[in-house]
Design brief:
This is DUF4440 domain-containing protein. This protein is an alpha+beta fold. It is built from 3 helices and 5 strands, in the order ααβαββββ. The chain has a 5-stranded mixed sheet with strand order 1-5-4-3-2. The termini are far apart. The relative contact order is 0.20.
Length: 127
């Protein structure tokens, strides 16, 4: 499913994210979203918590170059599980970060929204 709608939503949100704008993800997140991030000690349990977190890092994340690797969608009724690897390159030395991501989307009235996000470092992690 290389052209699945959730992959397109994810690509658009990541493009904004890598330019310091988390609103692309907020615009596609459900009110009951839950979010795991390796930089946080706890899970975020609502859109309001996610928005507060993103507001705290707004404008601080920049990756002039990045790769979305092998996105894969498994659609199950009105749910879709998107998994992919992500590499971001930043700074003048091209420091890279390698990630695994799982996003669970829910479809309501033909609109896909994220209900669960899980980011983790790959075995390669930081380089």
């Amino acid at each position: 499913m290389k052209n699945h709608p959730v992959i397109e939503l994810e690509k658009a949100a990541l493009a904004r994210w890598c330019n310091g704008d988390p609103d692309g993800f907020l615009e596609i997140s459900a009110q009951d979203v839950v979010y795991f991030d390796p930089f946080l000690s706890t899970r975020l349990d609502s859109f309001d918590q996610l928005k507060a977190h993103y507001d705290g890092i707004r404008g601080q994340i920049f990756a002039p170059r990045y790769e979305l690797i092998e996105p894969h969608v498994q659609e199950i009724g009105d749910a879709a599980v998107l998994t992919f690897r992500f590499v971001s390159y930043s700074g003048s030395e091209g420091a890279e970060m390698r990630w695994n991501c799982t996003e669970v989307y829910r479809r309501q009235s033909d609109v896909w929204q994220i209900v669960q996000t899980h980011w983790s470092f790959t075995a390669a992690g930081l380089r």
